[in-house]
Design goal:
Blueprint lengths: L6 E3 L8 H17 L2 E5 L5 H15 L3 H4 L12 E3 L5 E2 L2 E2 L3 E5 L31 H26 L6 H5 L7 E7 L9 E4 L5 E6 L5 E4 L5 E3 L7 E5 L1 H6 L9 E3 L7 E8 L14 H8 L2 H4 L7 H5 L14 H12 L1 H7 L6
Helix pairs in contact: 1-4, 2-4, 10-11
């Protein structure tokens, strides 16, 4: 049922009513604590912009495979670009989805130090004449989602008893947003669209079409459907915001299986900090720490294991590592999902 997670109208955050804004922040904070998932409506991005973006997404995936192969992810040291069905692993099991990953366009760093700065670099784009306007639409939408993410982090800061800009200051001067454009064919029997996982960063905003398939796990261990709701984004907490909030905010495991009769399209936007951001605990209240201590689900909420840990038999969400810098954990995410690309470009840094 759709009502498993709250649908939150965030229009009050853009008004001058400070009391209404604080009440809204408290509601967002409660959703982050109890569910790790919620919908946002009246978020400032109009339906026309969302539809234009989804049309561009579908137009990309409709291109011939030979065209998309020119920007294959295997060409990219930054794990950017297109990937064909069956290219990504979740928990060492192949996902059945086609994707395009787009980050912030930058010059690659020569001899990066520390090693994870190798993730800074350019995207791969098709020539403009092949898909006119595509790059402009995607980059513009990514900027809008970045601004919305800043607002959501303001609400979360207030909900944690911090000043409005606290978490955004932690994010540093060069946040690391990226977008994942996704096509899910009908999932084959005994397969997965994308396997059970937690998002590796801080904040995810998901735009879905009208085909269901996303499921999330509640703190009691049960699973519920996160059905599409027109005019909304699904928001979920990443495992590092869970870590820095002392597990007060919880990152919920989730997965996708397209059991419908048509292809499912979605786009996930991940808003994360500067790669060099230190993962130091946020100064939350003793009351909130006590709430975590009294909840087994929160107290035991873990992080995704690295590739090496899983090979050693560590459970997929029971990492024994305690990352101190965002780039360390972000690196693990890419290496775990694309070991072949990591082995090609970084044989000495497969962690």
């Amino acid at each position: 049922m759709t009502a498993k997670i709250p649908v939150i109208d965030i229009s009050d955050w853009f008004s001058d009513d400070q009391l209404a804004g604080r009440k809204l922040a408290e509601r967002v904070g409660l959703a982050c604590h109890e569910k790790g998932f919620f919908y946002v409506k009246n978020h400032g991005i109009n339906e026309h912009e969302c539809q234009r973006y989804m049309q561009a997404l579908k137009a990309f995936f409709a291109l011939p495979i030979s065209t998309k192969q020119s920007i294959d992810k295997h060409h990219s040291r930054q794990f950017r670009g297109w990937e064909q069905l069956g290219s990504e692993l979740t928990n060492n099991i192949t996902d059945y989805r086609e994707q395009l990953d787009i980050g912030v366009d930058s010059e690659a760093i020569i001899s990066p130090d520390p090693y994870f700065l190798a993730l800074v670099g350019p995207n791969q784009w098709l020539p403009e004449e092949i898909l006119p306007g595509f790059r402009t639409i995607v980059v513009d939408f990514q900027r809008k989602l970045s601004r919305l993410s800043v607002c959501l982090l303001e609400m979360m800061s207030v909900a944690l008893g911090l000043d409005t800009q606290h978490i955004n200051r932690v994010f540093g001067k060069r946040p690391s947003p990226y977008s994942k454009l996704i096509r899910y064919p009908i999932t084959k029997p005994n397969s997965q669209g994308v396997g059970i996982h937690k998002d590796s960063g801080f904040l995810t905003l998901l735009l879905q079409d009208d085909t269901p398939g996303l499921k999330a796990q509640a703190t009691d261990g049960s699973w519920y459907e996160v059905e599409p709701i027109a005019g909304s984004f699904v928001v979920n907490i990443g495992e590092l915001l869970q870590l820095m909030s002392g597990n007060y905010f919880v990152a919920a495991p989730h997965c996708v299986s397209n059991a419908g009769r048509v292809t499912r399209y979605s786009s996930a936007f991940f808003y994360s900090p500067d790669l060099t951001t230190r993962l130091e605990p946020l100064p939350i209240s003793d009351e909130k720490r006590d709430q975590v201590a009294m909840s087994e689900a929160h107290r035991n909420a873990g992080l995704m294991a690295s590739k090496t840990e899983m090979e050693q038999g560590v459970g997929s969400m029971n990492s024994l590592q305690n990352p101190t810098v965002f780039g360390e954990k972000y690196w693990q995410r890419w290496v775990r999902s694309y070991p072949d690309i990591a082995a090609r470009f970084y044989p000495d840094n497969i962690i």
